[in-house]
Design a protein that fits this description.
With 326 residues, the chain is α/β, with parallel strands linked by helices. Helices cover 45% and strands 10% of the residues. The chain has 13 helices and nine strands.
Amino acid sequence: MATIQDIAEHAGVSSATVSRVINSSGYVGTETRKTVEEAIKQLDYRPNKHAQMLRTGETKNFGIISTQFNDTAVARINSFISTAYSAGYTTTLFITNGDKKREREAFDLLKAKELDGIFLIYRANEWEVLESYLKDGPIVTLHNVDTHPIPSVFIDHYEGTQLALNYAWDTGCRRILNIYGTASGLNTERRIMAYNNFCSLKGITPYASDSFLHIVSDHDVDRVVQWIEEQAVKPDAIITHSDNIAALAVSRLEKKGYKVPKDISVIGFDNLFISDVMNMTTVDYGIKEQGSNACRLLLRQLGKKSDDLVPLTFTLIKRGTTKNTD
């Protein structure tokens, strides 16, 4: 395997000049750079990544950890990867399927200095377990951890849920059903609180939240639609926790003969591509910017230059699955 010294001898330059070309550091004249690059190509030189890591103390690699690989995770992952790439970092993705041991094994790579930092999207372990790794390197998470020391790119879904509820109300809906994702998630807790507070303010009876927790698959949506079928007085609006679940709800309801939004309105959450394709009303909250902000936070903790964090806000995107306010 060719070495830097071999390249220098072949190109007729010093090893220091070759090093500057390889590492893009320091000035090298245009013609000299071309000569060195040609020597690198001819000798098929491959940088020793392990040696570089030992020299700099950096892997230039971030870990991305998630329990699942759904569309909302992918939107954040893609924007994180793009921001990391622009900063000269690669990324390694770990999907744990909720396995606590697998998650800890991924975090052990931070301890072993094989990762420079971690973006944790959805977790399996308790915060106390994950916090023990903070001494090994920076960690950023998706969800707010309140008093915990792990930085977060969280945006409070209480406000977004209130936005959707108020719009459903303004379009004439009075029997509004909220369906939720992961039962133990902070977003779910905030959505339930927003829903109950809204119903109390409007003087309407809420549907029991416990019956509509963990609606995350087509079978779960089928169960909700079957429940609607059995009701003498049916909901006139459904607010979901994701665009994918909203799309399933629209599809299943229409197969049963319901007209959306004439019979029942449906509001999604995320503003992913599918909501545009299916012309669904949804709540946008900068989901892609969450991934970019997470990478920026890691870079800052490592003392690297990064763009400012982008403020996240909720915006209702009005489309065809809700009535007009006219």
